Amino acid sequence: LGGIDFHVIRHMGGVTQKTKDKIDQLTKQKLKYYNNDPTCAYKCPKEINQAEVDLFREILYEMQKSAQLSLQKIKASLKQSSMDLFGHRTSIIDPSNRKRLEAEARAIESQLENINRAINTHIDIDKLPLIWEIAFAEIFETAKKGFDIVIGNPPYVRQEKIADPLVPFEKTTAESRKAYKEKLIQSVYALYPHFFGETSKMHKPKHKLDAKSDLYIYFYFHGLNLLNSQGSFCFITSNSWLDVGYGKDLQEFLLKHCRIKMIIDNQAKRSFKEADVNTVICLFSPPDKYGEQGAKHTARFVMFKVPFEQVLSPVIFQEIESTRERFFKPEYRVCPVKQKSLLEEGYGIVEDETEETEKVLSTYGGNKWGGKYLRAPDIYWTILEKGKGKLVRLGDIAEVRRGVTTGANEFFYLDKDRIEEWGIEPEYLKPVIKSPRECKRILIDPKDLKYKIFMCHQDKRELQGT
């Protein structure tokens, strides 16, 4: 609003008792309105909306006053001086401190400009930013302190496409997208200071959210924050966070602070027939933000082998919840894993039988939850059990690294038209499977494949005339 980032009220700081009393009053009157109490101060939704607008103005004036006081103090500090023997006044602030104070003053002046612009903006209910504590004061400012259930299918947006939704993407720049993403990251830090690092040290969080995160990752953190202490969380999203690098922050947070009730996949039927993405359904408890009770729970990874319509029975879900070991049925399989074990795997805690010590990574490195616990075939677990004490991580005996990636897929993947246009000889082309969807059956006929891959191991000098 007017250039001001309105974070969740309880993380904004500087809100006076007077404003807290107004929020409390708004809550009580909204509850009266919804309960048809004749003593309610509001007679129609328009009056409730106006009360919310007035509350925003109150917050803006408080922010203005707080910023003005801070600016006055800094300017007073900058003027501090002493008189020498000859009557000359000199500053008592050393140059590095002066530079820091001047930078702070400029930042506050910029903030004041935004606040004044917001105050002078015509505010109506449609232009108000959604602050849950105000829009749903009857939920957050009562004994409930949050919703009973948060359920959703947030948007999947790759990190390079994340940008301010109020600006057309073609008008954004790399700098503006980076700045917007930084706001998203800071908003998550503000919600969970215990996990990411104290807000006063926000420039150096102990956990740093991966800037490569897909947009839906931010929805997970914000959605969990909306629950009350007895609430339930249910999202359906892309399954990528289970296995890719940017999912490790969410994995570690869930393992430490939540109960992972179930992560559900379906190998028989996609949740969204038209969407070119594999999804999972996630059921979590509300987060315990300041304790780390999550490790004592058991996570359950469930793979259904039949369409969901055939297993919509509470009996089946009671069976799943009661399992303590890997369990297989024709309709589904479930893999229960203690969250403490998942946490140790992610930290790389490995018992060394020869030295009776433990090797431990200093940070949580993530884990392949989807590949291991949902999609791995039965033989994978058989090999693990029979090879216990004999298997070692490949990374312990070899250097594993990614090959060179050019990013120029359109250069290497060639269809018939591009091959004819460029006149590339057959000896430099090999049939390639670009997508499993091209494979109509188990036996692959190269004639069925649309693309050839350009493969050349000769020097440029050897390619003269080709």
Oligomer: single chain
What is the global morphology? globular
The end-to-end distance, rounded to whole angstroms, is 62 Å
> In terms of structural class, how would the helical and strand content be classed?
alpha+beta
Helix proportion: 25-40%
Number of strands: 14
Largest sheet: 7 strands, mixed
Radius of gyration: 29 Å
- The chain-level mean pLDDT equals 84
Q: Unreliable stretches, pLDDT < 50, 5 or more residues?
A: 350-358
Strand order of the largest sheet: 3-4-6-5-7-9-8
- What fraction strand? 5-15%
Number of helices: 17
What can you tell me about this protein's structure?
This protein is of the alpha+beta class. The chain is 38% helix and 15% strand. It is built from 17 helices and 14 strands. The chain has helices at residues 9-12, 17-34, 45-78, 95-119, 132-135, 137-140, 174-191, 193-196, 215-224, 248-257, 314-322, 339-347, 369-374, 378-386, 394-397, 409-412, 416-422; strands spanning 81-83, 89-91, 147-152, 227-238, 260-266, 279-284, 298-304, 327-328, 332-338, 350-352, 357-359, 413-414, 429-432, 451-454. The strands form four sheets. A seven-stranded mixed β-sheet has the order 3-4-6-5-7-9-8. Strands 12-14-13 form a three-stranded antiparallel β-sheet. The chain is globular.
Protein topology:
Elements: H1 9-12, H2 17-34, H3 45-78, E1 81-83, E2 89-91, H4 95-119, H5 132-135, H6 137-140, E3 147-152, H7 174-191, H8 193-196, H9 215-224, E4 227-238, H10 248-257, E5 260-266, E6 279-284, E7 298-304, H11 314-322, E8 327-328, E9 332-338, H12 339-347, E10 350-352, E11 357-359, H13 369-374, H14 378-386, H15 394-397, H16 409-412, E12 413-414, H17 416-422, E13 429-432, E14 451-454
Parallel strand pairs: 3-4, 5-7
Antiparallel strand pairs: 1-2, 4-6, 5-6, 7-9, 8-9, 10-11, 12-14, 13-14
Helix pairs in contact: 2-3, 3-4, 10-12
